[in-house]
Design a protein that fits this description.
three-stranded antiparallel beta sheet, 8 helices
Length: 265
Amino acid sequence: MYRIKEFAAMTGLPPSKIRFYEKHGLLSALRDDNGYRVFSPEDAFRSNAFRVLLQYGFTVERAVAMLDARQGTEEFRRSLEDQREALLHEADLLRYRLAKIGGALELIDGGGRSDFTLMDAPDQLYVRASAGLDFGVAVDREREIALFYDMLSVTSCARIIDKDDFDAPGDSIDPSYIIAMPESEGHRLKEADLAHVEHLCLGKCVRFRRCVTREESVRKETFSDLFDYLDVLGYELRGNVILFPSFLNLDGNGSDIETLFVPVR
């Protein structure tokens, strides 16, 4: 039998973690005649078996439960298969997150300079969280909005600017707030009511990046560079514009870098 100091040394577990594992049922220490915790070689074996399950990505609670279940059964195999699927899903989402961080760093390194790129942009699926500044429409779409937010690695907070909004009277536009994902990821929407999911056809687009404050973002005059560029190249606006903010200035006092996809013909 080993006292806690010896057991900590042989297992590499600090005493605080040993007590934590005791609390969660992994270890069941006995007490010697002097009242000190003592552990057996079986406890060391359980600790290492437990660590293997943690290597597989199971939670502490799940790993403890699996240690006390029968091993080598079909149920155990299914647990491993389910965990593999869960990890593959996490790895998929991590690739999206890394790509988005890379994109943000690219924007920062670019200094926020306006630039234009003609490209073929992927179509988007989205749920409206507002109609302009009216957020009442979100009530009917609450479930779908929550589903999109649960997939934030794949989805993005964005805004839709209606094509007719640019020609409407006034000095500012009135974009709608949306949560969007590439159409190619639509297979993830198995639980969504597709009646609340809209499709934005992009295709041939001008990608327009600009650095503006929140207040400037809705002023029509701040789109003059875009429309000058379209006029010079002989392009016309074909449909609604989608705007992806980067939120690099969270306090709202500085400028943000926005990426707009402008469908043209």
